[in-house]
Design goal:
Serine Threonine Protein Phosphatase 5, Tetratricopeptide repeat, 314 residues, 14 helices, mainly alpha, elongated, disordered C terminus
C-alpha cells in the first residue's frame, strides 16, 4: 500500500512539474493579448492603450501584426492630443516598417498632427510631399482637398480656388470632385466681399472726427467722437480767448487725445470690419465642407484596425 502511495505521489509531482514547464513556455498569441489594448482604445482610454500596445511590441517584437500595433500607438497619442508624441510614433512606424501598408496613412496623419498643433506651414509642406510621393493612393484626393482648406484658413482665396479646381478636374470620379467644384465657385465671390479701407477711414477722421467710424458702420461711436472733439475743441478755444489758459490747455489736450483716438479707432474698426467679413465667409465655406460628410471615419485597411478620424482645424 505504501508502495502504491509512493508511486502516486511521484506521478503527481511529475505531472505538476511537466504542466508548469509546459504552461510557462507557452504564452498567449499577440492577437489574443491585443484584445485588452483594443478595448482601451475603443473606450477612449488612449494613454493606457499606448502602454498596452508598447508592452505587446516589447514581448512580441517579431509578431506579424507589429506594424499595426505601432500604428495604434501613434493613433492613440494623436487621439489623446499628444501630437508631438504621435508624430514621433508615426515616424517610428515609417522607419521601422517601410514596406507596411500603413506607411502611407502614417504620412498623412503626420501632416494632420502638424495642422492640429497649429503648424499649418509644416502641415502644408507634408501634404504637398505626400501628393508627390503617393500620387495613386486612395488618400490623395482627400489630401489635395485639405490643402484647399488650409488656404481658406489663411484667407488665401485665389490659392484655394485654384486648388479645388484641380481637385474637381484631377479626381473627377472621387466624391471630393463635386464638393470641390462648388467650393471653387463660392471662393470666387471672396473678391466681392464688402471691404473698408483703413487708409480711407483714417483720412476721413482726420478731416472730420468720427466720420471714419461712420464709414465703417460704427455710427454711434462716430457721432460720439465728433460731438466730444467739437465740444472740447470749442471749449479750449473759448477759454484761451478768455486768457484762462489753466483751463484751456487741459481741455485742449483732452480734445486732441480724443481726436487722435478717433483716427486710430477708425483704422481699427475698418480692419475689424474686414476680418468679420472674411470670418463669416470662411464659416460659410466650412459649413459647406461639414455638410458634405466627406470627413467621417477613414475606411480601415485591415480588419480590426481603427484609424484616426480627421479633425478639421480652421
Amino acid at each position: 500500500m505504501k508502495t502504491h502511495l509512493s508511486i502516486l505521489t511521484r506521478y503527481a509531482l511529475l505531472s505538476c512539474t511537466l504542466s508548469f514547464l509546459f504552461f510557462s513556455t507557452v504564452s498567449p498569441s499577440p492577437a489574443v493579448e491585443s484584445a485588452f489594448a483594443d478595448a482601451l482604445f475603443r473606450e477612449g482610454d488612449y494613454l493606457n492603450a499606448v502602454h498596452e500596445y508598447k508592452r505587446l511590441l516589447f514581448i512580441h517584437p517579431d509578431a506579424s501584426q507589429s506594424d499595426f500595433i505601432a500604428f495604434r500607438i501613434a493613433a492613440s497619442y494623436q487621439n489623446a492630443g499628444q501630437l508631438k508624441n504621435a508624430i514621433r510614433a508615426y515616424q517610428h512606424l515609417i522607419d521601422t516598417y517601410p514596406k507596411s501598408t500603413l506607411v502611407v496613412r502614417a504620412k498623412n496623419n503626420i501632416a494632420q498632427c502638424h495642422i492640429l498643433s497649429g503648424d499649418s506651414k509644416q502641415g502644408l509642406t507634408s501634404l504637398k510631399r505626400f501628393l508627390t510621393e503617393h500620387k495613386t493612393s486612395d488618400l490623395t484626393p482627400r489630401v489635395h482637398f485639405t490643402i484647399g482648406m488650409l488656404h481658406i484658413d489663411k484667407g488665401e482665396w485665389a490659392e484655394a480656388n485654384s486648388t479645388w479646381n484641380d481637385v474637381s478636374v484631377t479626381y473627377s470620379e472621387s466624391p471630393f470632385a463635386e464638393v470641390s467644384d462648388r467650393l471653387a465657385q463660392l471662393v470666387k465671390n471672396a473678391e466681392t466681399l464688402p471691404h473698408r479701407s483703413p487708409t480711407v477711414a483714417g483720412a476721413l477722421s482726420v478731416l472730420v472726427p468720427g466720420s471714419g467710424q461712420i464709414y465703417t458702420g460704427q455710427t454711434v461711436d462716430g457721432l460720439y467722437a465728433f460731438v466730444s472733439v467739437a465740444i472740447l475743441g470749442g471749449a479750449s478755444f473759448y477759454y484761451a480767448d478768455q486768457a484762462r489758459y489753466e483751463v484751456a490747455v487741459p481741455v485742449g489736450i483732452l480734445g486732441a487725445f480724443l481726436y487722435g483716438n478717433s483716427i486710430y479707432q477708425s483704422i481699427q474698426t475698418a480692419r475689424t470690419f474686414n476680418l468679420q467679413q472674411n470670418r463669416l465667409f470662411r464659416s460659410r465655406l466650412q459649413q459647406e465642407i461639414r455638410d458634405s460628410g466627406l470627413f467621417g471615419a477613414i475606411s480601415s485597411p485591415v480588419k480590426e484596425v481603427k484609424l484616426v478620424l480627421w479633425q478639421s482645424k480652421f
